[in-house]
Design brief:
Blueprint lengths: L1 H25 L12 E8 L6 H21 L6 E8 L4 H14 L3 E4 L3 H13 L4 E3 L10 E3 L4 H14 L4 E7 L2 H16 L3 E8 L7 H9 L4 E5 L4 H11 L6 E3 L6 H6 L7 E6 L11 H17 L5 H18 L5 H11 L3 E2 L4 E2 L12 E7 L2 E4 L3
Parallel strand pairs: 1-2, 1-3, 3-4, 4-5, 6-7, 6-8, 8-9, 9-10
Antiparallel strand pairs: 10-13, 11-12, 13-14
Helix pairs in contact: 2-11, 3-4, 5-6, 11-12
């Protein structure tokens, strides 16, 4: 009896061992930054909902558009491409959790995040896992494996400088949101201003969630600037513009590229004279001269509009550039995070993207050729040169 019991026990143990082996074989652990079979996974972290959705919604839509196009064309180089998007709901903490999820999914690269502060929050997690990050918000990257798709603030400052010089303006006031993006703008512009004899005569800040900036603008008026520069995203950017109009300023207001979206246009509808913005040429593609840049921008615009019956914006273009550069790496036979990062660092020279020309050897984001100063006419964007 005892021998029979021992035999049954040994048989049960053997069966359990075999079951564990088969289970492990059937469900392999996916290592971060490597493709699985014929499927390559790419991650995205965008603010599809929450206050920053005025910027992130078009990026989330872009993911749906690109996935549809990838499926229709059968992937890239024989590989199925799966884009996994996480909505961080305009919450930096949730963005870090989203990064963890994407890493556990085995993505080979990540595009995002929508906001500068959020991007800074996820950089350590993503780069620590050895995964390249294509940033869609300006952060002045100095970490290996981080590639910036948005123009940096110095590049945007150069566009503003050209506008000021054309109008013989040498005294400006500066007002920014007290957040990662807003605070980072002034030091960059101060460099441009100092090199071009532009004096910053006043500086004010406001909370990113503030609903009235009348006090700050009243303080600015006392300094008698010749123009006001606003560094914020919507909705704050639009609130400043409305307060500016209510106070009867008769000088130009220049808004940062983070406000170049439909949400801002809606906020300043029918009262937008002398309001300008550093915007993507995507917003005025029909007004551009013929050429490769116009062709590329029109394709994105037309494809996006056909699917969503609305217009993409510069944040859409930043995200598209991030995905397109990853696609270029995969086309060249690079399927792991390490290979993709090496390709991006060493093989992207004078690449004509939607946000401008990229050169990742001296990496500071796209050149100025993707951006221009935009005016508003009939509640739509207009190239200021026209």
């Amino acid at each position: 009896m005892e021998k029979l019991f021992k035999k049954k026990s040994l048989l049960i143990i053997l069966m359990l061992s075999l079951l564990l082996v088969f289970t492990a074989c059937g469900n392999p652990q996916t290592n971060s930054g490597s493709s699985t079979g014929d499927v390559i996974k790419i991650g995205a972290i965008f603010s599809e909902t929450g206050p920053a959705s005025t910027l992130g919604k078009t990026q989330a839509n872009l993911v749906k558009l690109l996935q549809k196009q990838l499926d229709e064309q059968g992937g890239i180089a024989g590989k199925k491409i799966e884009i996994i998007m996480q909505d961080y709901e305009t919450d930096d903490t949730k963005a870090v959790v989203a990064a963890d999820k994407l890493i556990s999914e085995g993505v080979v690269a990540i595009v995002g995040a929508t906001q500068s502060s959020t991007t800074m929050a996820v950089v350590p997690k993503i780069t620590g896992a050895g995964i390249p990050l294509m940033t869609t918000a300006p952060i002045n990257p100095d970490t290996k494996g981080v590639f910036q798709m948005a123009p940096n603030n110095v590049t945007a400052g150069e566009v503003i400088k050209d506008f000021l010089q054309e109008r013989n303006i040498s005294k400006v006031a500066w007002i920014n949101a007290r957040d990662g993006y807003g605070v980072d703008g002034l030091p960059s512009f101060e460099k441009v201003a100092a090199e071009n004899n532009i004096e910053i005569v006043a500086h004010e800040e406001f909370d990113a969630n503030a609903t009235d900036m009348t006090i700050q603008l009243t303080n600015i008026r006392k300094a008698t600037p010749e123009a006001i520069i606003v560094w914020s995203r919507t909705p704050g950017a639009g609130i400043v513009a409305r307060n500016f109009k209510s106070l009867g300023f008769d000088i130009p207001m220049i808004q940062a590229n983070a406000a170049a979206n439909q949400g801002f246009l809606d906020q300043v509808k029918d009262d937008n004279e002398e309001i300008f913005i550093v915007g993507a040429k995507l917003s005025v593609v029909d007004q551009l001269p013929a050429g490769p840049q116009k062709d590329n921008l029109m394709k994105l615009r037309d494809d996006y509009k056909a699917m969503f019956n609305s217009e993409p914006d510069n944040f859409t273009a930043h995200a598209a550039d991030g995905f397109n550069l990853i696609f270029e790496a995969i086309k060249a036979g690079n399927t792991t995070s390490e290979q993709i990062a090496e390709f991006l660092q060493n093989n992207v020279n004078d690449y004509l993207g939607l946000s401008g020309t990229f050169n990742t050897k001296s990496y500071v984001g796209p050149n100025e050729d993707g951006f221009s100063m935009l005016a508003i006419k009939n509640n739509t964007w207009k190239l200021n040169e026209q």
